[in-house]
Amino acid sequence: MPEELLPRFARVPASEFGMGADDGNEDERPEHRVHVDVFHISIHTITNEQYGEFVPTMGRRVPAVRELPLLVTADHEASYRELAAAYLWRDGEMPRDRAPHPVALVTYTDAAAYCAWLTTKI
């Protein structure tokens, strides 16, 4: 990966925080302490151009609408797909006018694979 495409990172120290709520929904109860180990996070969103270095190298799928988000009902599917069209990669190529824009329509699995791949580049 060219150095100019490498993200810059900030170190987030290990810490604890309160997760959940005693008066929240069933899956939020009870409030409890959670420990998070130290980690690094990109100070800017990952761009299409940066993600585009990863896709062909690792043989990953390009960003696409694979599943509708839970909040998109059947009544809104056409509108969602219309809005997402500008972010779709066509024939394996990112939308060139969106190279510096944040990558969108990436699954959790692909994002985790990107992060694992990125650790080998820095």
What does the secondary structure layout of this molecule look like, with pairings?
Elements: E1 9-12, E2 15-19, E3 32-36, E4 39-42, H1 48-58, H2 77-84, H3 108-119
Antiparallel strand pairs: 1-4, 2-3
Descriptive terms for the model:
single chain, 122 residues, alpha+beta, 15% strand
Description:
- The protein is an alpha+beta fold.
- The chain has helices at 48-58, 77-84, 108-119, and strands at residues 9-12, 15-19, 32-36, 39-42.
- The strands form 2 sheets. The protein has a two-stranded antiparallel sheet.
- The protein starts with 8 loop residues before the first strand and ends with a helix.
- The mean pLDDT is 93.
Give the topology string: H per helix, E per strand. EEEEHHH
Strand residue percentage: 5-15%
Biggest sheet, strands in spatial order? 1-4
The structural class is alpha+beta
Average of pLDDT:
93
* Helical fraction: 25-40%
Task: Note the total helix count.
Answer: 3
Shape: flat
The tally of strands reads 4
Spans where pLDDT lies below 50 across 5 or more residues: none
What's the main sheet like? 2 strands, antiparallel
